[in-house]
Amino acid sequence: MNELSRTAAQRRADEIRVFREELERLQAEHVLTLTDEQRQSVQQHHDALLGSYTATFDIDRDQQAQRLSLGMRVASFLGAVALAASVFFLFNQYWGLFPTWAQVTLLLVASLGTLFATYWIGRRDPTGYFSKLAAMVAFACFVLNIALLGEMFNITPSDKAFIVWAALALLLAYTFDLRLLLAAGILCFIAFVSARVGTWSGVYWLYFGERPENFFPAAALLFCLPLFVSHAKFQGFAALYRIFALLTLLLPVLVLANWGEISYLPFSAAAVERIYQVLGFVLSAAAIWLGVRCEWADTVNTGTVFFVIFLYTKFYDWWWEIVPKFVFFLIIGLTSILFILVMKRLRAAAQGAGGPR
Amino acid sequence: MKFAWSKSRAMLVAAALVVVTNAIALGGVAYNRSGKPDSVLQLTERELPIQWWSWPENENSAVHLRLNWRIAGGSYVWDRGIDWLSEPQLRALGFELPDAAASSEERLRAAHQTARDVFFALEFDGPAYQGELERQRKVVSKAEEESAAAVEDKAARERVEDEKENLRLEQLNGSRLFVVAVDTDADTLRQRYPDRKHYAIVSGRLELRVSGDKTVAQIDDLNVNVIRVPHAYRKLVEPLRTPESSITQYKSAPRYAATVHFGRRLEPWIVDARRLDR
Predict the structure, then answer these.
(1) Bridge pairing between strands B177-183 and B81-82
(2) Can you give the pLDDT at residue B245?
(3) Which chain A positions have a beta carbon within 8 Å of B231's beta carbon?
(4) Other beta carbons less than 10 A from residue B115's beta carbon
(5) Cis geometry, peptide bond prior to residue B56 (ω within 30 degrees of 0)
(6) What's the average model confidence in pLDDT over A237-254?
(7) List of long-range contacts for A88-91, beta carbons under 8 Å, 24+ apart
(8) Which of A109, A145, B34, B103 is deepest in the core (most CB within 10 A)?
(9) In whole angstroms, what is the distance from residue B258 CA to residue A331 CA?
(10) CA R_g for chain A
């Protein structure tokens, strides 16, 4: 039981609810008839499981509870962001009034204190809503801690701050099963790796974004990580890695497909744009193919969005100026229909090969 | 042996991460400030005006002073372009420059080169400032000659007064801190400028600007361009922190002076600040 995460418990509870509904239908249609003893046995087993999940994880037992939980998740996210902002402005407002030793102590105590508070709340909050709030504040305090130390002592800004921020965010994300902190950690990791890659070519680290190719190694690392490290216990973590990996890969490709002069490649801007336009189509199509093959809905969706963006960008370049607007939008509409047909065939092929697991 | 991961272990690791990171940051500060400073400059409000922030930093209760540097030979006070760096020097700093026959696209690509990490030599109250005063005096002389040649020209007379006022302000509150040299190696700059009381070596970024057929280097900024006022001197500077009291706006003399040390990592800090009698 302790091995189970809240998300896994919720998934099992959802499956039990669907099983019960289907069992009722099967019995009503006289396809399957369980004896009273069998029905009671299944019912008791499921009730015990649900009771235990509710006690331990405060899961949603029905659809109405699920809808309310979604609202709580949204409130928890907004609350976490607002509390982090509140901590920032609190420090900002009273910061200069303390002597240096008090400032350093305050920063350290805030970082360690909020970490302890997160641990304390995490042990008492099976829902995860309050631990998410506390973990976000702990992360914000640590970010402020390092940023304000730099400001206090006039330290030269460094990209190394991102790697320790990433480390803490990932530690909190994996300990308390928090996707928000995982996203924060991934963003810090992307910033660190991309800045490092940028400095190899002599670029000042803070300007790593001016050369979009700096993001590619981070994209590759993020995509490979869930392939080698199992995330079975953390629902949604592997998908988040893949989504960020594709965004980190395809957004720079999209930028380079339109502004070739900011590339590292030693070709003319037009040639670079053509290379990245082709690469954009190939990579987004490959993402769709891989997503369908591995049943990664996140990868299929992200690949599809980028494929469509690349396609429409090219349509705009080719036809916006030279064809009447109704023809332009007609082409867009017909292309969408074609795209749906292709996706339908892909889906049929995937189902024919064994269907969704 | 299987390693058992738990929330308490994770929190211990997280706490260790916080403590070690703080220790490394503070250790770096201690290293920078240990031993003899790399340079010691006696600056005033002319070179260290109060830094103004926009939201949200303007709610920051800490007080910061900005290193108000200028370019030797710059046309304007706010000009960041360096026209005394030759093409071979720019290439040695790591820039790829378009040759004379380069197409407009090649020039555009050169202009898109990102800023590079370099070191600057900052000269305080030295030949560069004297050169600036001399240049301004010549401007006044030229304006006076033109005015004398056209006695009836009211605009020429006004120009003389304007230039005299510019010279007075340059002497009264113009920054005497000038960027005089650029290199990729701090030691090379220190060897060229061994006077540690008038030359500070700082790190910063240099970028390229292409205007027409000309490629000019310009300073993006210093890596540490603002210095925090220590708590002990906060009461001295904080009352002056109103936009209306800027010395350049009110054409007034500097109101405070500060001793700034630049340490082993070339990071500056204020060791002393005092009011100036006006």
Answers:
(1) unpaired
(2) 63
(3) 96, 98-100
(4) 20
(5) yes
(6) 95
(7) A88/A140, A88/A144, A88/B56, A89/B56, A89/B59, A91/A144, A91/A148
(8) A145
(9) 69
(10) 25
**Cβ-Cβ contacts under 8 Å, A119 against chain B:** 7-8, 11
Count of CB pairs separated by less than 8 Å, A with B: 138
B92–chain A Cβ distance below 8 A for any pair: no
**CA nearest to B258, candidates B127, B124, B72, B132:** B124
Minimal CA separation from A262 to chain B, in Å:
6
Tokens representing residue B181 in the block:
């040299």
Q: How much is the pLDDT for A295?
A: 84
Which residue bears the tokens 């509150």? Answer: B173
Q: Is the pLDDT of residue A224 over 70?
A: yes
Q: How far apart are CA A281 and CA B273, in angstroms?
A: 61
- Give the single-character DSSP code of B53: -
Kindly determine whether residue B19 and residue A108, on different chains, have CB atoms separated by under 8 Å: yes
Q: Are A222 and A247 in contact (CB under 8 A)?
A: no
- Element housing B216 (H / E): strand B214-222
Across A223-241, b (16+ Cβ under 10 Å) vs e yields bebbeeeebeebbebbbbb
Residue B275 contacts residue B235 (beta carbons within 8 Å) = no
Interface check for B245 against chain A (CB to CB < 8 A): the answer is: no
Q: How far apart are CA B250 and CA B266, in angstroms?
A: 33
Backbone angles phi, psi at B96, to 5 degrees: -100, 120
Q: Are B258 and B270 in contact (CB under 8 A)?
A: yes
What pLDDT sits at residue A354? 53
B185 has a pLDDT exceeding 90: yes
Residue B5's pLDDT is what?
A: 66
A156–B269: do the CB atoms touch at under 8 Å? no
CA atoms within 13 A on the CB side of A100: 16
ipTM > 0.90, yes or no: no
Token digits of residue A330: 């007609």
Please tell me the distance from the alpha carbon of residue A97 to that of residue B234, in angstroms, as a whole number: 9
Query: Quick one: which of B120, B57, B48, B68 has its CA closest to B272?
Result: B48
Count the helices and strands in chain B (H runs, E runs).
8, 11
CA dihedral A206, A210, A213, A214 (to 10 degrees): 0
How would you class A21 by CB atoms within 10 Å of its CB: exposed for 0-12, middle for 13-18, buried for 19 or more?
A: exposed
Chain B partners within 8 Å of A112 (Cβ): 15, 18-19
> By the CB < 8 Å criterion, does B116 face chain A?
yes
Instruction: Please say whether the beta carbons of B255 and A141 come within 8 A.
Output: no
Give the closest residue to B179 by CA, choosing from B209, B148, B212, B203.
B203
> Are the beta carbons of A142 and B18 separated by less than 8 Å?
yes
Comparing CA positions, the residue from A197, A195, A202, A198 lying closest to residue B96 is: A202
Q: For residue B256, how far is the Cα from the chain centroid?
A: 18
- pTM for the full predicted model: 0.83
Half-sphere exposure of B235 (CA within 13 A, CB side): 3
| Residue of A183, A180, A160, A185 whose CA lies nearest to A170 | A185
Is A175's CB within 8 Å of B7's CB?
yes
E strands within A130-262?
Answer: none
Beta bridge partners of A178: none
Inspect the interface and report whether the beta carbons of A154 and B60 lie closer than 8 Å: no
